[in-house]
Queue: 2 jobs
Job 1
Amino acid sequence: MSEIDQLRGEVLAAVTAASDVPALENVRVDALGKKGRVTGLMKNLGTMSPEDRKTFGQQLNLLKTEIEDAITARRATLDSAALDAKLATEKMDVTLPVRPELKGSLHPISQTMDEMAAIFGAMGFTIAEGPDVEDDFHNFTALNFPPGHPAREMHDTFFLPTAPDGNRYLLRTHTSPVQIRTMLSEKPPIRVIIPGRTYRCDYDMTHTPMFHQIEGLVIDTETNMTHLKGCLQEFVRSFFGVDDLTIRFRPSFFPFTEPSAEMDIGCSRQGGELKIGNYGDWLEILGCGMVHPNVLKSCGLDPEVYQGFAFGMGVERVAMLKYGIPDLRTFFESDLRWLKHYGFAALDVPSLTGGLNR
């Protein structure tokens, strides 16, 4: 047996016998490294005649290729076996109950919107939804914001590039466009609430670029301001858990309602602490009013026949008031410690008989 044949047999046997990747690497270095056995034989080429050097060199190159191929194949086998062993030791029984420390929590925003839906649902309201990306008509024009009207500057709007069809799209600045979509698609009587995300270019302790609103809309032939007052009074008393909570309305301006008002609830600020109740002070909480006749006309409704009211409030704002959350920005910072403190049990579904007044 020649020296090359003997070396081939010994190295290939060592490759097959390697039990793990480190052992295989030792075989490679011993055979093909700078001081390896194959490298050592190549050093003999300089002492050979041209014919012998050619023949011996070809045999060494063939041996080197065989060894490299054998090492590559063995490494693949060892890697696959190592992966199988790892997977076998890392099995998890998904039928086991969740560990208590991994129990999830419901975000205060979700909880608050569920609470609002429970209260208004008991009054006969249903939920309406619409797209976050709106066109100018639904977000402004149909809501009595004429082109160039200063009221359009009331909101810092995220405008999108003008579409090929010439329409200007934007991230909705309020959930009011859903009122328009509802009146265009449904016949009165209408009684809906509209929870959802809204967007404005603003960011500080009391403003964020994305926040949540909930609006209400009632359209029929008889609704008036007294119905609006009764609806909102019942809501704030149920939501804050104060049976005799006082409210007051102050004249205001919104392009889509006439008359328009802002509603205050009773509170106290003594000692730097805000308390909701009949303590002699007032806190503004929402805007409201009777739906403007121009809005009804934009939706194909005759203002001589139909009328109604609308209201809207920020979900984060009322959640902060109810649960004592001082900074609006913490709602969106994904801090698990904050959620653990303010969060709610995932199965604690709000209802009129429980889960509303914590």
Job 2
Amino acid sequence: MHSERVTTPFGRRSMTLALVKSQMRTSQIEGGKSVDKWKVYRDACDARSLLGLRDRALAVLNALLTFHPDGELSNGGNLIVFPSNAQLTARANGIAGTTLRENLAHLVEAGLIQRCDSPNGKRYARKASDGSIETAYGFSLSPLLARSEELALLAQQVVAAQRRLKVIKERITIARRDVSKLISAAVEEGVPGDWGKVEAIHLALMARLRTTKSLEDFTALLDELELLREEVVNRLEIQVNSQKTGTNDADIRLHIQNSNTESTVELEPASEKKQGAKSSPDTARKIEQIKAFPLGMVLRACPEISMYGPGGSIESWRDLMVAAIVVRSMLGVSPSAYQDACEVMGPENAAATMAAILERAGHISSAGGYLRDLTGKARRGEFSLGPVLMALMRANGQEVRLA
């Protein structure tokens, strides 16, 4: 039996548009539709976080389903159950009366059941002469039948999210292990660098792990851990290369190209091409290696980066790279965009570029997109950091000098 009328609740319970919408939806169930009631229940359990339901409410729904005599919910059959509160309490593991009423209301609000109240608010059924139920008042299970496909889809979304979360947690475990052991290896092998500060960053990320709950927060934490791991690997790779070539300087030089030093406060790339001039493909692809700009010059041009260094100051290139990681996250630059910049420009040059972007953050709508654009031009040999630093120093009213 299925009623197509919109009914209102008994007593002081008010009618809402949400209840009207729910009842109209159940009145449009296609003929002959049926579904296994326990499958729908399992889908509702899996999707409880999206439905905003607690475990106690699902226990009450389970109790209601036990009063439906058939294994399936089908259109054309009786979908109204009418147990008393005492019967529901017994089948819901002795739930308290106030808790029972509260969770019944939650199920109604979630759109999983409907109230079909009698004139006096009691739950009962009136049988026909042949013993079949002619009229019933209680709770209708028709919303479960109407929403069976929707609940299945919601359950799949929750399961997929749980699977993604499991994969991300596994990757976090591997990344934190890699970072810890790589730092230990660097210290034991005497690799130059302030590994104590790197370890402090690692410990801070692990402290966040203890309070992280959402999928988005776990994803962000994984991005930062993987970026930290790449930074550590880069430092170790530089050390390995320096041992092979007998010099460390060539491996850590900033890759920039001499260009027009005309002053501008925007972080615009510079180019050697003059209008109408042509250059060979080799020249267009080449990024000339020159000596790194002094750290003091970078800090004078970009003073704001200092507050993000370990202890609120920057005393070395390592401190600048650590601060750049913090600023990268703060400005919404993706780890992949920053890693690409490190690979193309070199880690020190990329950190200095990040400091320059921070200095002009109020004038840049998308820091991540801007960094990717500069990285692309650096790859083509069309970006030079020198004019950027000098322009920022002039904007700050400082004398330009390369020391």
